[in-house]
Amino acid sequence: MTDSAHIAAVTATDFEQIVIQGSFERPVLVDFWADWCAPCRQLMPILSRLAEEFKGQFFLAKVDTEAEQALAAQFGIRSLPTVQLFKNGQAVDQFMGALPEGQIREFLSRHISRASDQLLDQARQAMADGDLNAASALIERAKQDDPDNSRVFIAQVQLKAVEGDAAGALELLEHTPLDLAADPELAAIRGRLAFSAAVADAPAAEALQTTLKANPGDNDARYQLAAHQVLAGDNEAALENLLTLLKRDRQYGDDAARKGMVAIFDLLGGSGELVSRYRAKMLSSLY
């Protein structure tokens, strides 16, 4: 285990200086490991590679729990490997086990801002302001400056969607990197694209409501109305219509009602009162 400017083996003697004090200057990732632990040996080279790639945006401290049992006990280490992230003198997050690299990057992204991420934030603001040319230029600059930042791909898909190029967005999504396969932002984009496609040739929302008053069993009309409601931001009404459709016909559109509800959960960030309430209702109707 060769140390570098961004990595060091840490003991009880220098833990305070390197980890606690050091975390006031930059995040410190502490890898609690042991030589007998096979998952530890799988994880360590991934963490080391990321520490070098991030070039000092976080520091990797390695603690051999066999040699530093008191230190491991002090921080409540009960399984190996355990990785804790310290900021401003405190452990603020952790994960256990040898996670895939993509999940580790996602973990780091919650705490570490890359210079290219700032460009991508500016690009998203430009999209929100309707300045798509500026957004495109910022995304391209981020790609050139930091080609390893997987968030660039997400911004590219978002730009295609905002431009109204659904086909282009879907084509990009077909080449989603493996480490982004479960990314919630991309899942939300897929859902919005699916709802947009559902209303492309559909009647207006008011006409669909009239249809449903006359024939509540019109599954196509109910699904299309839910899609209209999502795109208009009325997520609760959309969820209620999809739940009704799910209860009536689980097989409709290859399980479209359940998939639609899950897509809305993704659009809402996967949490919150509305998501919790309708997720429980969905599960109750399924089982």
From TrEMBL:
<dbReference type="InterPro" id="IPR036249">
    <property type="entry name" value="Thioredoxin-like_sf"/>
</dbReference>
<keyword id="KW-1015">Disulfide bond</keyword>
<feature type="domain" description="Thioredoxin">
    <location>
        <begin position="1"/>
        <end position="113"/>
    </location>
</feature>
<dbReference type="Pfam" id="PF00085">
    <property type="entry name" value="Thioredoxin"/>
</dbReference>
<dbReference type="GO" id="GO:0006950">
    <property type="term" value="P:response to stress"/>
</dbReference>
<dbReference type="GO" id="GO:0005737">
    <property type="term" value="C:cytoplasm"/>
</dbReference>
<protein>
    <recommendedName>
        <fullName>Thioredoxin</fullName>
    </recommendedName>
</protein>
<keyword id="KW-0813">Transport</keyword>
<keyword id="KW-0676">Redox-active center</keyword>
<dbReference type="InterPro" id="IPR017937">
    <property type="entry name" value="Thioredoxin_CS"/>
</dbReference>
<dbReference type="GO" id="GO:0015035">
    <property type="term" value="F:protein-disulfide reductase activity"/>
</dbReference>
<dbReference type="InterPro" id="IPR005746">
    <property type="entry name" value="Thioredoxin"/>
</dbReference>
<comment type="similarity">
    <text>Belongs to the thioredoxin family.</text>
</comment>
<keyword id="KW-0249">Electron transport</keyword>
<dbReference type="Pfam" id="PF14561">
    <property type="entry name" value="TPR_20"/>
</dbReference>
<dbReference type="InterPro" id="IPR013766">
    <property type="entry name" value="Thioredoxin_domain"/>
</dbReference>
<dbReference type="InterPro" id="IPR011990">
    <property type="entry name" value="TPR-like_helical_dom_sf"/>
</dbReference>
